[in-house]
């Protein structure tokens, strides 16, 4: 079979995403803090962009001069740049002006800005340096501290620590015992039982029964097998309750209070306020710089070489596109929130139990956009409502059919399940089957027991056997 080269013409269609379109799509799905970082990065890299004062931005008009070497398409792009739309607000100005006075601005305290949180490793190392251990033991102690998890438990064996430090396993154990008496007491333990026993000894609790329970029967306590324990130790349920009360005063995770991760505070992207019989939507633009074109660089385009002008024009088009993309993002966010408020008005009026079923397609058809656009704009976006701060995706939930043919949202069912469990008798907790019967009586909805179990697990609520309190 011979080999040969042939030329063949083939007509096909394919979707090509320009860098500008990719940037616009990326901006849609960025959170508010990520958007601020992206804009700041563009301000550093693009000389045509600058952060202007709000008053100056409001007065800005068409500031792009016509340059002979600029292509006609670029002139048309700059001529049609709708700066007023970019600057303008998206809701009624009169209502916004009256509602803004209700906005609460939480300022970070001066102490919170200058103080640093002590880590578990730093706290223990400070005590290690002040201890009476010699230099070799301090080196072993540093290896022990560096192998603790976030709860304060030692994750390395004595043999592994010996390899790391070049010491013998016999030298490792005394150092571990010393560190276990540091603050917090019980740190560097290998098991919860060891951790609690160290605390019992350190606090001077002399009770052989309590020590035996901690050493051998923690699993029985976890599974609430109380009667076998009472028979084994020949004690009453009241005496066993006294031992449990002593155990609750101990800390099975001594290192948890020194969490290494800082808390993440949510900054809402949108505020929804009740104003009379209507709801007002305000976009949170605090911290987001007002962008405008740098007039000095635009004037510097005159008299430049073709390569310099080409660079200037590329940066100018990039700046214009970024400003338009930001405007489009804010406009899309406002329209999606407005549609959500329209569909979920009962929620904004009365709370979570009145949340209705809603899917992306409903909002997309309402605002005339694609579902993928709605999905991107609802990612990592938060809304401050009269009932708290919720992620925008929270308002999209599946439907459960009622007996009368209507539907109820799954989040409403979850809220009812949480409310029922919070009001139950701790000694006789509600089973999943009982909750399903109560939901049928209250909502007239046929919901299976396994569905109740799934919703309960999603709410991080344990089963009825684990919620049961004997005492």
From TrEMBL:
<dbReference type="GO" id="GO:0001216">
    <property type="term" value="F:DNA-binding transcription activator activity"/>
</dbReference>
<dbReference type="GO" id="GO:0003677">
    <property type="term" value="F:DNA binding"/>
</dbReference>
<dbReference type="InterPro" id="IPR007634">
    <property type="entry name" value="RNA_pol_sigma_54_DNA-bd"/>
</dbReference>
<dbReference type="GO" id="GO:0000428">
    <property type="term" value="C:DNA-directed RNA polymerase complex"/>
</dbReference>
<feature type="domain" description="RNA polymerase sigma factor 54 core-binding">
    <location>
        <begin position="110"/>
        <end position="297"/>
    </location>
</feature>
<keyword id="KW-0238">DNA-binding</keyword>
<keyword id="KW-0808">Transferase</keyword>
<feature type="domain" description="RNA polymerase sigma factor 54 DNA-binding">
    <location>
        <begin position="310"/>
        <end position="469"/>
    </location>
</feature>
<keyword id="KW-0805">Transcription regulation</keyword>
<keyword id="KW-0240">DNA-directed RNA polymerase</keyword>
<comment type="similarity">
    <text>Belongs to the sigma-54 factor family.</text>
</comment>
<dbReference type="GO" id="GO:0016987">
    <property type="term" value="F:sigma factor activity"/>
</dbReference>
<keyword id="KW-0731">Sigma factor</keyword>
<dbReference type="Pfam" id="PF04552">
    <property type="entry name" value="Sigma54_DBD"/>
</dbReference>
<dbReference type="Pfam" id="PF00309">
    <property type="entry name" value="Sigma54_AID"/>
</dbReference>
<dbReference type="GO" id="GO:0016779">
    <property type="term" value="F:nucleotidyltransferase activity"/>
</dbReference>
<dbReference type="Pfam" id="PF04963">
    <property type="entry name" value="Sigma54_CBD"/>
</dbReference>
<dbReference type="InterPro" id="IPR000394">
    <property type="entry name" value="RNA_pol_sigma_54"/>
</dbReference>
<keyword id="KW-0804">Transcription</keyword>
<dbReference type="InterPro" id="IPR007046">
    <property type="entry name" value="RNA_pol_sigma_54_core-bd"/>
</dbReference>
<keyword id="KW-0548">Nucleotidyltransferase</keyword>
<dbReference type="InterPro" id="IPR038709">
    <property type="entry name" value="RpoN_core-bd_sf"/>
</dbReference>
<dbReference type="GO" id="GO:0006352">
    <property type="term" value="P:DNA-templated transcription initiation"/>
</dbReference>
<protein>
    <submittedName>
        <fullName>RNA polymerase factor sigma-54</fullName>
    </submittedName>
</protein>
